[in-house]
Every structure is written in structure tokens, then in C-alpha cells.
Amino acid sequence: MSATTSPTNTQPTRTLTNDEEAIPMEDTSEVTRLFVERLQAWKHAVAYLEDYISATEKAQHAHGKEYAHILKTVRDPLKEGHQFDQSLGGVAGMFENIRSNTQGISNHHYETAKTLKGTVLPLFERLHTELKHKTKELAKGAGKGSKTVDKARHTTQKHIEMLGQRTATFESHGGRMQAQEDPYVIQRGVMYRLNRQVQEENANRQDLISVQNSFAQFESHVLQEIQHGLGQFMQVVNTQCEQSKVMYGDMVGTAQRIPLDFEWNGFVRRNDGILIDPAAPARSVSNVQFPNQDHASTKPIIAGALERKSKLTRSYDTNYYVVTPAKFLHEFKSDDNFAKDPVPELSLYLPDCVIGACVGQKFNVKGKDVSKGKVGNTFSMNHELKFKAHTPQAASQWWEVIRKVAGQVTGEVPDASAPTSPVNSRDSPTVDGKPAPLQTDLPYRDEKGPVSATAGSATTAPGSATMAGSTPASAVPSGVPGQPGKY
């Protein structure tokens, strides 16, 4: 009987690169199916041995006449036989040896049949039951995780396709769209779902690595049980005639000469492109690329923290604000894409808004919150939002950016108790050389587009994103030097 050897840690060679796709083309259930098929192969191998012992026990009563029946139990090739090494010294060779020696057995006894049925056969039945439980455990664990990964990838793919549709709409319609269709918002939604997907992938990956690492030890146990069962079988038949003793001894010796890591190492060599390398790095969102990730419509014109005065507490709350190329002013709780789905708390379509004067760190914007879609926009009321920046320079930058795309600019001073006259500037409308009356209502909008609500006003249609004497929105300064779009 050969000495027992321990399995070697042969690592698979499949690795991941840093240049990754958002939705990998790999089949998440491929590894699980491979291990299920592997367990099926072992179950059938053990089933062959169970059939062999049972047939041998029956053959004790029928002597040589039943040996033809015993030979049939192992005559056919193993099911999933490609899972075993076909060279000598493995499981496939062990069964070939059993076939040849069974042919030579000529005599059995009734006492041998009783011992085989009560002692040897239960060893293989218990091993078969262990293999069945291992298959169920794999299906409920790694198999369920693969379905979760597929569901997360499907969700991410839907939002990536939505981003492609909205960026195409942005380019074809000049950026005029609903707030919830803003490519910037959708792009942040893609990042949120992609992060959830990567977490599910990494969790499933760890489950599969654990299963993969445990398989070598489990297969060693299976082989040990097979060797132990066949050893018991040898002791039973050893009392028979010398010829039968030699043949059965040869069968058992063949099985026990199989190194515990022989089949596993061959399995890894044949499937090194499928099995997971535990040393490979986990996926990272920072390395993932997806279509339209860097599209111009997803980059804010200016972004950063502003304070907005609450109507109830009259105190200022700090939030994260952005002005997007689609001419929306969005309010978010923070700039974190991963903590929760980054849906705007408030959205203003600036061409429909009125901006007052900038005094120090403060400025006001009047308009409708359009973050609720078409139905919400219809019943939404005008609100005057009072903002305060951290510095006068930052407030000036925000005011200048919003002024470029605002539907109307007035000289209304923030926190003033009574309306003041508009500031005379190149952006303030005049009539006969005198400042025009203060206009705080939103421009009227018909089916064909926005129309100025005051005759003789110096503002242009909101869709044009420019005013008399002003420059296009694309020329808006990007923010603090060295940090485009932020301060």
C-alpha cells in the first residue's frame, strides 16, 4: 500500500486585467457548472463502486455464472469520464484494473456475500450521500450568488444603454430635455449600480474561491474513503482462494496507489483557463470603462458646496450643487456616487429661471423645481431660493455661470425688505435710456418654446441660453484656477 500524499496547491492561471469592461462577457455560472459536473463525475464513480460491491455480494450465491453480470457494472466508460486523467495511475486506470481482475475471479462464498453487504457496501453509500449533500450546498451557495451577479449586471446594462440614449438626445436636441433625463444624473446612476454590481461580483468571486479551495481537500477525503472501502473489501475476500486474493489485492492496490492530488492536479491543468486564480486582484470601479463615461454632457460647468436658506428655520443648510451643460442647476446631499442613488433633491431649469443681483456671498434664484418630471412640473410653484457661497469670489463665479443661461437677470438684492431698482449694466434691460421695471415673473412658454413675458425686454428666448450683451454658456469660466468646474 503506497504512502498517503497531501494535495499540492496548484493555482489556476486565469486572471483579470485593469482594462475592464463594465459588463464582462464571462458566464458567472461557468465555474459553478464545472464543479457541479465534477461532483457528478465523483458521484458516478462512487456509484460504480457501490454497484460493484452489490453485484459481487450477489455473485457469491451464483458463483462464476454471475461474474458476467459483475463485469457489466464496470464495463461501460465512466460518466463524465473526461473529468478524470486517462493516463495510468488515476481513477480511470483504477476502473480499468477492476475490469480486468473481475474477469479472472472464479469462486465466491455465501459468508463473503453477507460480510460484503453488511460492512463494505455502507461505506460507499455514505460517501455517495456526502457527494449529494456537497452538490446541494454548491447550488444553494455559489449557484445562487451567480444569479445575483447576473441580475446586477442586467440592471447596470440597462442604465448604460439609457445613458447612451440620453447623450444622443442631448446632441440631437441641443441639450433641451427633462431633469431626470440629464446625462449627468444618469451617469451618476450608472456609477451607483456599477458599484453594487462589482460588490456582488467580488462577493460571488470569494464564494467561488472558497469552494474551489475546499474541493482539493474534499476530493482527498473522497479518495481516502474509496481507499478505505476497498481495503475493507480486500479483507473480506482475502479468505477466499489464493487466486481471488491476488486479483482483489491488485484492484485495491491500484486504487491506493493513486496520489491524493493526482486527479486534482490533472483537473487544474485541463481547466486552468476557467478556474479562478485566488491571487488575482479584485475588481475596482476605478478601473471600469463604459460607453459615454466621459461625454461632454456629463461634465458639470461648475460644481461645489453652497448654502441655501431654509424657509422654515431661516438657517442656511450646506448641500452640493452643480450646473450642467443641459442648463440645469441640481441640488444633491453630497458628491458621493456610491453611498446611495444620486438622485437630485432639487432641479432648476435655468432658462426658465430669474436670477437677482450678487451681493457679497449671496444671490437669489427664482424658478420651479422640475425634478419630478412632466406631471410634477405642471403643478410645481415658483420658489425664490436664497444661496450663499463660502467667499464673495465663489459667489461671483456661481452667479456669472448661472447668469449666462438664466432666462432673466434682475437687480434684486438678496435679503432686501423691499424690491430695488435693477442694476444698470450691460445685462440689465433699459427703456429710453432708463432702467426697465423690475421683472420677477417667469417668461411665458407656449408649445413652440419660451417667449419673453415683457415687451422690450433685453433677454432672449430661454432655449438660446444667452442674453443681450452676454456670451454663450460654453464660454462660462470653469471655476477656481487649477480646479475646473469647482471652487
From TrEMBL:
Region (Disordered) residue spans: 412-487
Compositionally biased region (Low complexity): 452-471
UniProt keyword Transferase, yes or no: no
Residue ranges of the TM segments: none
Domain PH: start-end pairs: 300-409
This protein's UniProt keywords: Phosphoprotein
UniProt feature coiled coil, ranges: none
Ranges of compositional bias, category Polar residues: 418-428
Protein name (database record): PH domain-containing protein
Protein's organism: Sporormia fimetaria CBS 119925
